[in-house]
Write a structure and sequence with these properties.
Elements lengths: L9 H6 L16 E4 L3 E7 L3 H6 L7 H4 L4 E7 L5 E11 L2 E7 L3 H12 L5 E4 L4 E7 L13 H6 L19 E4 L8 E6 L13 E2 L4 H9 L4 H4 L28 H10 L4 E8 L11 E4 L4 E9 L2 E7 H6 L3 E3 L2 E4 L12 H5 L1
Parallel strand pairs: 1-10
Antiparallel strand pairs: 1-7, 2-5, 2-6, 3-4, 4-5, 7-9, 8-9, 11-14, 11-16, 12-13, 12-15, 13-14, 15-16
Length: 351
């Protein structure tokens, strides 16, 4: 049986009893490095690249014109549904790399070329030339998971400018950014595809070939890729893109902006991605399995599972107030992630 659930703090620590997380300072533990085999890269290059992307992505390209080297954003269809989630890197003047789900890299390349029209831009899939690594603490300090101020979140999404990840030797053309979604997700590096190890750059890093980063994302409640954010079936606010600094509500028009803005200003987001923690290994749970409460009512769908952890698109209020939840006879619980913003008056935000 799971202990009683609370929104955060001690209740969250008790909930994560499957694999208790340590709260020692980050510097006392080795960082882990993991190559993200499932992520691809598309390069957009040209003098009009920033203006071109400004009309397609949910975030403001102005962030990358300042000191920030990367930002999180989505590309939507005209109905306001997610086509691609991406972390965008600034490689140089007029050159941007869009990190995306590798299995949909060709679709993203085609999508960008379709909207290019007569602009002088080069759009190329460079997944074979460069690869993405993440460097992270697999047991993050939960005391640093502080709620985000909603006014600064919505009116001007925060984008980290510094990397704070020292590299040794000659990094060369290596790109390093702090994960723009949240600090607990560590750093992302773009390196030559032939790079088999990061030990030349970070001798003390512990490399792994498993799914440690995916487990970390699930524990934090962060979705990524076409399995967890199904193309044309997922809305950006349901994917917590607004909470992850991925949407600007003041930048102006972009494809899919109308429904996203209307939902934020006048609608209620009843369903969101939430962490799932199972009482036993649930890797065999089928995709889109139904989450049921103690009354037998369907309150959401599973998006992905790995071991004891997973993600679900759930009806927030009903799931957080449920006495029990089950998925295909597996007992499961969820919680309101402590990094979600504090509630604030919509009237104040809209002023």
């Amino acid at each position: 049986m799971f202990p009683a659930l609370r929104h955060h703090g001690a209740g969250l620590l008790r909930l994560w009893k499957v694999r208790p997380l340590q709260t020692a300072p980050l510097t006392r533990r080795l960082l882990h490095a993991e190559r993200q085999q499932h992520r691809g890269l598309i390069k957009v290059e040209g003098t009009e690249a920033a203006d071109f992307l400004q009309g397609l992505v949910t975030n403001d390209m102005g962030h990358l014109e300042g000191q920030a080297a990367g930002m999180y954003c989505l590309l939507l269809n005209r109905q306001g549904r997610v086509l691609h989630d991406t972390i965008m890197y600034r490689r140089g003047p007029g050159t941007f790399l869009l990190e995306c789900d590798a299995v949909r890299a060709s679709q993203l390349e085609r999508h960008l070329r379709m909207h290019r029209v007569r602009r002088r831009l080069a759009v190329d899939d460079i997944t074979k030339d460069l690869s993405v690594w993440c460097v992270f603490d697999p047991e993050p300090d939960l005391t640093q998971l502080l709620p985000v101020d909603p006014e600064s979140l919505y009116m001007n999404p925060h984008v980290e400018a510094g990397t704070a990840l020292p590299l040794e030797g000659n990094p060369g053309d290596v790109l390093v950014i702090q994960d723009p979604r949240m600090r607990q997700l560590g750093h992302r590096l773009v390196v030559p595809a032939a790079t088999a190890s990061l030990r030349r750059l970070m001798p003390m890093v512990e490399e792994e070939k498993g799914e440690g980063f995916r487990v970390l994302r699930y524990m934090l409640g962060v979705g990524e890729g076409s399995e967890e954010l199904p193309p044309t079936k997922c809305l950006p606010l349901e994917a917590n893109c607004d909470y992850l600094h991925g949407i600007s509500f003041h930048k102006g028009c972009y494809v899919g902006q109308e429904l996203t803005a209307r939902t934020f200003h006048t609608g209620v987001v009843r369903k969101r991605l939430l962490p799932l923690i199972f009482s036993e290994d649930a890797s065999a749970v089928s995709p889109d399995a139904t989450v049921v409460n103690e009354q037998g009512k369907a309150v959401g769908k599973v998006r992905a599972c790995l071991g004891h952890y997973g993600l679900g698109l759930l009806r927030v209020e009903e799931c957080l107030s449920a006495k029990s939840l089950t998925v295909e006879d597996h007992k499961v619980q969820t919680f309101r992630p402590p990094w979600w913003p504090l509630q604030a008056s919509k009237t104040k935000l809209n002023q």
